[in-house]
Amino acid sequence: MNIALIGAGNVGWHLAQALQAGGHTVTAVYSRTAAPREELTRLLPQAQPISSLNLQSINAEVVLLAVPDAALAAVAAALQVKPGTLVAHTSGSQPLAILAAVAGARTGVFYPLQTFSKTKAVDFWQVPILLEATDDETLQQLQALAQSISNSAEAVASGARKQLHLAAVFACNFTNHLLGISRQLLQEASLPHHLLQPLIRETIAKAMQQHPYTVQTGPAVRHDQNVLDEHLYMLQRHPELQELYRLLTQSIQATAAAQ
Amino acid sequence: MNIALIGAGNVGWHLAQALQAGGHTVTAVYSRTAAPREELTRLLPQAQPISSLNLQSINAEVVLLAVPDAALAAVAAALQVKPGTLVAHTSGSQPLAILAAVAGARTGVFYPLQTFSKTKAVDFWQVPILLEATDDETLQQLQALAQSISNSAEAVASGARKQLHLAAVFACNFTNHLLGISRQLLQEASLPHHLLQPLIRETIAKAMQQHPYTVQTGPAVRHDQNVLDEHLYMLQRHPELQELYRLLTQSIQATAAAQ
């Protein structure tokens, strides 16, 4: 397929390369500022960098929108495509209906459920792609596209996708932040961060095998008040971490009590 | 070495089997109630289950205490050993000095930095063991013991070990809880939990390679207020999760602002 990509951020960066590796042709890359589209099209021999959202003269049956959620409505309103073009966005949190503004297009969602950074390679075959479309034919087309770059493609409606995105914020964004806090605490004691890596690996391996609530360990679930008090005392120079510690402890205890 | 184990909970369970596999002999297992010591000694051919903390007639050069932190002071006060016995506790948060109460013993700390559940096997060779002792000879003895069951043994003083334990609560206990919340949110939308596994694996792999603060993604760090508001709205039936979401979002934003 000939595909135009709107957005050259973290998602667009990896998606474009996966599409190319999957045998598709990325014919154009749009970004608001010049540098990202120039940088990405250097990796895509047949793609031209474009600075306009009027794509009526671009050779593309599919247009994928990989722009920040907050920009999606404005981009959809400004986008112009040939009649019958398949336009899909890649957002976990935005509804399919946000693309209703694109005149003459068939619309869908093509959401790769993964965290992307330009600096780290991603095996796209392992990335679940969640799909939605206004009609069955469009859905089948998106399914074929997804299956050409990933082992896992599933139709998920907007409501469920939103809930999945919320769950992903807890599992990914918030978890990453806690790992960052833990690394900061090690740094403050001049301890090497590799010391905690086996523990982190085991925590995740265990949480994949069993429901995490059933394997919760640590001072909170044991109601070990001496340790809890001491930890809060140790965090006195970080009042915001103290509050986080207190709230997470309460939440663990409330969850255990409800089991 | 001949080793007596005080405590047959999650830590004692795995430690006893690692020591036996490392060529040592566990000669006795104490637990407060009968069932845990009976269960564990069935796996240790030369160990007797014991119900008294008077170990003066037990054949053991080393006594390892794997009891809950909250019980450690009372167990140390009640423990009686032959003069010169090496007594070490396995706690991340308790000071070496808590063992000063054990009359006639040389004392140390033997802290395996890992999360243990009886239901899940652990490769002890990958578990860092953090050591501390009142004198160099005792430290060397603990080092030899640790190196016979793990690839990673390091001397860490009480203060640094406490900070490490605090960091581990964030990296392990709190992270596990967030993964539990995420699984609960998937269940509420009847979504299969395997959908999030590639994302969780990638999040952790990335956090091991780079400082997590530098690879933070998601609506909080992007200040994507529409998504943040919607997520808070979606959590309205879980006010405690709403509060957690709000506080973690604030913490991510404050951290990013301080970078």
Automatic annotation (TrEMBL), chains A, B:
<dbReference type="InterPro" id="IPR037108">
    <property type="entry name" value="TM1727-like_C_sf"/>
</dbReference>
<feature type="domain" description="Putative oxidoreductase/dehydrogenase Rossmann-like">
    <location>
        <begin position="2"/>
        <end position="103"/>
    </location>
</feature>
<dbReference type="Pfam" id="PF10727">
    <property type="entry name" value="Rossmann-like"/>
</dbReference>
<protein>
    <recommendedName>
        <fullName>DUF2520 domain-containing protein</fullName>
    </recommendedName>
</protein>
<dbReference type="InterPro" id="IPR018931">
    <property type="entry name" value="DUF2520"/>
</dbReference>
<dbReference type="Pfam" id="PF10728">
    <property type="entry name" value="DUF2520"/>
</dbReference>
<dbReference type="InterPro" id="IPR008927">
    <property type="entry name" value="6-PGluconate_DH-like_C_sf"/>
</dbReference>
<dbReference type="InterPro" id="IPR036291">
    <property type="entry name" value="NAD(P)-bd_dom_sf"/>
</dbReference>
<feature type="domain" description="DUF2520">
    <location>
        <begin position="128"/>
        <end position="252"/>
    </location>
</feature>
<dbReference type="InterPro" id="IPR019665">
    <property type="entry name" value="OxRdtase/DH_put_Rossmann_dom"/>
</dbReference>
